[in-house]
Amino acid sequence: MKARGKRTLERRVIAQKALELIDRNGLEALSMRKLGAALGVEAMALYHHFESKAELLDGVLELLVEQIERGIPENKPPLWRLRRMFENMRRIAIEHPHAFILLPTRRFRTQRALEAYERLLQTFRDAGFDAEASARYFRVLAGFVSGAGLAEIGGSRALQPDATGVILEDFSDEQEFPRVTEVVPYLRVRKLDQIFAFGLDLIFDAMKRDLRKT
Amino acid sequence: MKARGKRTLERRVIAQKALELIDRNGLEALSMRKLGAALGVEAMALYHHFESKAELLDGVLELLVEQIERGIPENKPPLWRLRRMFENMRRIAIEHPHAFILLPTRRFRTQRALEAYERLLQTFRDAGFDAEASARYFRVLAGFVSGAGLAEIGGSRALQPDATGVILEDFSDEQEFPRVTEVVPYLRVRKLDQIFAFGLDLIFDAMKRDLRKT
DNA sequence: ACCTGAACACCGTTCAAGT
DNA sequence: ACCTGAACACCGTTCAAGT
Question: Is the CB of A46 under 7 A from strand C?
Answer without folding.
Answer: no
